[in-house]
Specification:
Elements: H1 6-28, H2 39-67, H3 70-73, H4 76-99, H5 103-131, H6 137-157, H7 159-166, H8 172-204, H9 211-227, H10 230-236, H11 241-273, H12 279-301, H13 305-313, H14 315-341, H15 353-377, H16 386-410
Helix pairs in contact: 1-2, 1-16, 2-4, 2-8, 2-14, 4-5, 5-6, 6-8, 8-14, 9-11, 10-11, 11-12, 12-14, 13-14, 14-15, 15-16
């Protein structure tokens, strides 16, 4: 049975609320100068908290609740790891807000490796005990998610020697190391972590799947996640088209092929899941799935060099892509999981108002970012009141999270486990 620790998920949602609030301030800074705010420091704190405070903490809660037995979930080590990680998140956040990214904050990031390594080791050890020799497809995806989670930290660990050797914080090697971390977080840990939870849901409801097909799907996605990193190398060395073609035509087409192989199976799975799902959960999961398909298409489209250059130089497109993965895929799926298994069902007509506001806000922001990026691309320039409009739409995200947290508190008697 899948369970959720209400206290932990509320902490993760509070982290997400701070992330969204910071993002709103960053938008407002383009309308009115905020003399008290160091933009770069806030921006760095924003993405750090998004990755470690929201996605990682929420995944931590959901993975433990989905993959471990109640007895394993109650072990002291998981409670200790959660609160140590949350304490470190607060320390890193305050460091970044006040001092920005430095050797000290890199050291703090390395501390995450220790805590995350402890979590991964503990989960894998307990999974071996609870699952025995039973090869579950969800476990296989989870192991790959953990592989990418740990692999991504090579990007952070390498920053210190790069700065010492090259004495240039913004050197090409610094760029490649930071992108290494982000790439394997967004395209590895996020995606495979979500898929592991999705397949665990399928197993939980006793739905049979073609495991051979989905193992082929898994291998192709794994190869594509590794190959698509070459796009970052191309952006670092734009004269070398071979890197672009490897990433976009190779990695992109592999992902499209992977999705094509299981497209009918996914349709069948959604059909069999429908009777089990909250109506809001079903909509959110389809939203995340469509966003995932759009992500794959975009990775193929930028195989054309001019489009790849546009994607890099027009900041609106870059932000829209990161938001597509972080908000439209990862966050939407995590909300869907919370609605489904934290029992936030439509007890009242307005129970999921926060979910609706969140979905509308992120979709509107994505469309506006892509529209403004296209206007810049064709030489039209900025639309009238663009910054005011995107600020107002972004404001809906923290408001929606407040509503979601309120619902978690209001129905805290559901889905609770040992605190």
């Amino acid at each position: 049975m899948i369970r959720i620790n209400n206290t932990w998920i509320k902490i993760a949602l509070l982290n997400f609320l701070i992330v969204a609030t910071l993002g709103t301030f960053l938008r407002f800074a383009f309308i009115k100068e905020l003399t008290w705010m160091d933009y770069l420091h806030f921006q760095t704190a924003h993405w750090h908290l998004a990755v470690f405070g929201w996605i990682y903490q929420a995944m931590y809660v959901f993975i433990i609740g989905a993959f471990l037995t109640p007895e394993q979930q109650a072990q002291k080590k998981y409670h200790t790891l959660f609160w140590l990680n949350q304490t470190l998140i607060i320390i890193v956040f305050l460091t970044l807000i006040t001092k920005g990214y430095s050797f000290f904050s890199v050291d703090e990031d390395i501390c995450f490796v220790v805590l995350i390594g402890g979590f991964v080791f503990s989960i894998l050890k307990d999974l071996k005990i609870s699952s025995g020799s039973n090869r579950l497809i969800s476990n296989e995806f989870l192991k790959i998610a953990f592989f990418f989670l740990l692999l991504s930290f090579l990007g952070i660990i390498s920053i210190i020697p790069i700065e010492l050797l090259f004495s240039a914080k913004r050197s090409i090697f610094y760029y490649l190391s930071s992108q290494f971390f982000l790439h394997f977080q967004y395209n590895g840990w996020f995606i495979f972590g979500i898929l592991s939870l999705f397949f665990k849901m399928i197993e939980n409801y006793g739905i049979k799947i073609n495991t051979d097909k989905f193992r082929q799907f898994k291998r192709l996605l794994l190869a594509a996640a590794l190959i698509t990193y070459f796009l970052n190398i191309y952006w670092g060395y734009p004269g070398h088209l071979v890197f672009l073609w490897i990433a976009s035509l190779g990695g992109g087409m592999i992902q499209i092929t992977a999705l094509f192989i299981v497209r009918k199976d996914i349709s069948m799975i959604f059909g069999e899941l429908k009777p089990h799902l909250n109506s809001v959960t079903a909509v959110l999961m389809k939203f995340a799935y469509i966003s995932f398909c759009i992500k794959l298409i975009l990775q193929v489209v930028i195989a054309y060099p001019d489009l790849a250059s546009v994607a890099l130089t027009i900041r609106n497109y870059t932000i829209a892509y990161f938001h597509l993965v972080f908000l439209c895929i990862a966050s939407v799926f995590l909300f869907a999981w919370n609605v489904q298994f934290n029992k936030l069902k439509l007890i009242q007509k307005n129970s999921n108002t926060g979910i609706y506001v969140f979905s509308f806000s992120i979709l509107s922001v994505e469309l506006l970012l892509f529209l403004q990026g296209t206007l810049l691309w064709i030489g039209v320039g900025f639309m009238t009141f663009y910054y005011e409009l995107i600020f107002l739409l972004t404001l809906g995200i923290p408001i929606s999270i407040v509503l979601i947290i309120f619902q978690n508190i209001k129905h805290s008697n559901f889905g609770d486990i040992n605190k």
